[in-house]
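Sanity check. The docking grid for flavin mononucleotide depends on where the pocket ends up, so I'm generating a full predicted complex first rather than guessing from homology. Inputs follow.
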Amino acid sequence: MLNSFTKGYFPETDFPIRTIDAEKCSKCGRCFETCPTLGFQWRKGEVPTPVGYGGYAQACLNCGNCTAVCPSDAITMTGVYSVREGRYKNSLEGKMAFPDPLCLNGAKMYDGFKEELTPVERAIFERRSNRLFKDKKVPREVICRILEAGRFAPSAGNCQPYKFVVIQDQSIIHDLERLSMKTMLRPLKNLYLDHKGTRPLWKRIVFNFLSIFMATKFDPRPFTAMEKADVRKDKIYFDAPLVIMILKDTRGVSNPDLDAGICAQNMVLAAHALGLGTCYIGLPIEPLNYPLMMGLRKRLSIRHPFEAVTSIAIGYPKGKIDGVVKRDTPQVAWIGS
Ligand SMILES: Cc1cc2nc3c(=O)[nH]c(=O)nc-3n(C[C@H](O)[C@H](O)[C@H](O)COP(=O)(O)O)c2cc1C
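Predicted complex below; grid placement will be based on this.
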């Protein structure tokens, strides 16, 4: 126990290495735009450079979105994101692989068998989080279809312990972005990330102390996304024309968080089938519970017994976003044959 505390912060982390083939690169900057972290440096007309920050040589979540949106197939990723030791040590196997639902042992490329898959399976494998939105409103009837997909999600005891907040008013989205950065995300991120590339003792002490109360909050990944939001003037929602926030009814039986998550994924897949792009946005959820955010909670009609669980940025994708990517392989215990 004591040992895991001493190894808690900062977790020793490996990031994957991204390389860009300068010959192939079209210099469009889509990798820079879509990256959930500040993983690339880019200036118009130049080949982007994969970078790190905050003491990390690379900043990459291994999501592969940069490879999916690249129009010229110029990006290669090697290695995996992993936390080597301490409390955050990965339970993943560190073997990045393409989808292999037909158990072909990864030998065949996805394109070789995708026709054999159902449309639902293809959507599951090819959907990528979309952070590049067209400036185009989502019609009301399309929004209703997404909400209906949420309503028909399974829930424990058929409680349907949720409420949906449909936000199209950009001024509220901006206030949510700005206030969550100001009250919580920016101060926390500045405390955690070290721009000099060193990790002073006082930060270890502060984070070890905080971790007693917030044991799962200090993996570097969310901090790298906060850094991007900070640099991009608080653009947590990437200018999406529509945000749907999913609230849980805290009175739900069993596990209303899980119910809300299942419901949200129904909406994401329905939106995808309707030609929309989506991205879960979790960053402002924690700050929304701050006492300082009471006014905003009221404007978002979040009142007891409801609490925000997650939100989804939705809109029409700008260019090609989807594409199959490699994923790490989780442990699987086969019990029986
Ligand atoms: C609960 C949840 C919260 C997330 N929050 C954010 C977020 O705040 N910002 C962001 O850019 N992406 C966010 N994501 C998207 C993940 O980064 C993304 O799903 C992951 O990197 C895998 O990429 P893919 O969705 O393209 O497969 C979130 C995803 C989930 C499930």
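Relevant for the grid: Residues 154 and 315 are 25 Å apart (CA to CA).
Also worth noting: Residues 140-168+241-315 form a domain with the NADH Oxidase fold (CATH 3.40.109.10).
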